[in-house]
Amino acid sequence: MLNKKSKLIAILSMILIVTCIFSFAGCSESENQSNTGGDSPSISADQDTNTKQPEDPADKDDTETKDEATYALSMSFANEKYIETGDASQHKLVRKVKGEVKLDGGKNDEAAIKAAIEKLRKVPSSASNADTLVTDKFKINKVVLDGDKCNVDISIDNVDDLNQFDEQFFIYQVTDTVLSSFSNVKSVSFTVDGDTSDVLNYMDISSAFTADSVSEFDSSEAE
After folding, report:
1. I want to staple 206 with a disulfide (CB 3.0 to 4.6 A). Which of 38, 160, 188, 198 is the partner?
2. Nearest 5 degrees, angle CA 185-CA 190-CA 196?
3. In 3D, which of 177, 216, 184, 215 has the Cα closest to residue 97?
4. How would you classify the pairing of strands 149-156 and 130-131?
5. How far apart (Å, rounded) are the C-alpha atoms in residues 223 and 83?
6. Nearest to 157, CA basis, from 137, 135, 143, 140
7. Where are the strands (E) in 111-157, listed by range?
8. pLDDT 10s digits, 65-111
9. Is 140 in contact with 110 (CB distance < 8 Å)?
10. In this structure, are residues 196 and 153 in contact, taking their beta carbons and an 8 Å threshold?
11. CA 34 – CA 48 distance, rounded (Å)
12. How far, in Å, CA of 113 to CA of 142, rounded?
């Protein structure tokens, strides 16, 4: 009788232990769900702050800069002392005067050469003993590149107003500046109002001018 009673107590004890185990597991799961908000996890303030918001077009910077090309120039001017005295011991040109041309819209060698020639109309303050004979007597119509050849088309209001110095220094200031500033150019020719011409008034322009032409013109008797 005692043995049966003991067995019954043992069985009831086992049932009680199992019941307690399952009850404890159920409580733990319920607590976890309550801590995590069930199936809808909460978003922290940091997470919400870092959420990428769509850009407002009004917030965009509209100051976009266009492409700009800068050309370094090595410009040539007339030697003021030679102009004043005609001293053959003087060089005729003041060479390698630094300058630059900036173009909106990117690289364009023909436009840059035309702009470089226009800069020869004014002597920069950095050039000493320099003058210019690239004056309003000469209008630059256009510049055309063909391989390593450059053609400068000009207009002259009254060719009879030109003297020999006007023509020589215009031709050689332009030629030396173009050849020294644009390494891809090897010769410079001149046309008048779109037509080839043998001479201006004094200067023979039937052939293209080269670096050798400039050196020969600029040489002095002192050398």
Report:
1. 198
2. 130
3. 177
4. unpaired
5. 19
6. 137
7. 130-131, 138-146, 149-156
8. 468 999 999 999 999 999 999 999 999 999 999 999 999 988 999 99
9. no
10. no
11. 22
12. 9
